Amino acid sequence: MDNWEDMKIVAEQWSKQGIEFVQQIPSPQLYAAIALLLLATIWLFSIRLFRRTKSNTVLLSGLSGSGKTMLFYRLRDGSSHQGAVTSMEPNEGTFVLHYENIKKGKVKPVHLVDVPGHSRLRSKLEEYLPRAAAIVFVVDALEFLPNIRAVSEYLYDILTNASVVKNKTPVLLCCNKTDKITAHTKEFIRKQMEKEIEKLRCSRSAVSTADITNDFTLGIEGEVFNFSHCHNKVTVAEASGLTGEIDQVQDFIREHVKP
Length: 259
Hints:
Belongs to the small GTPase superfamily. Arf family. Its main location: endoplasmic reticulum. The chain is of the alpha/beta class. It has 2 domains: about 1-50; about 55-255, Rossmann fold (3-Layer(aba) Sandwich), CATH 3.40.50.300. It has 8 helices and 6 strands; from the N terminus they run H-H-E-H-E-E-H-E-H-H-E-H-E-H. Helix 5 (about 150-160) crosses helix 7 (about 185-205). The radius of gyration is 26 Å and the shape is elongated.
């Protein structure tokens, strides 16, 4: 009981001293201190809130003609949207994935962005990469070999982008049009792209550091490149936007944009 009384007396003394100290501070300084404290509290709260709010943006990227737009419409409403469309602006929309419309309960919508694949329009991709929860990089499995260099360079630039590396943004290498008999398999495409990216690593590392435009380098020094060396996770899947065989793409999206 005595201890409690002693603690109470000490607390009252500290409280009195604290009030006296505050009263001695000039008003402008006191107001400035209170304002600074409030700003710091708001800033910390905003950071915590931002960290809790995960992005629902998924990017569809790849060369023109790879089938990105068809995949976009398959995911949105189940339509095939026949024919290639070269757009000057991204196709984008926020919606529940088409196959999930039959599900009961609340499902988180996905903000899907089909980024133009033309080389002159790729700057659009830079605008979206910092807020991407995941990236689906679409490759034409039919016309893969004639475009292997361009495809590999495009993917290399994505994998060495500062936002992708720092956020460890997952990438799905989506081998599209695999319903065709002459389409290359995902394993063939993966191995050939790893070889091509290895060549890019060697050629770009030989360039003066003043001329390097990429934010980060890929791979492990002294080892031949493979996708497991990337800062972020890269997986490979097969799909067909034409026939609607896109289960692996949908699963990848839902893995990174939780329902």
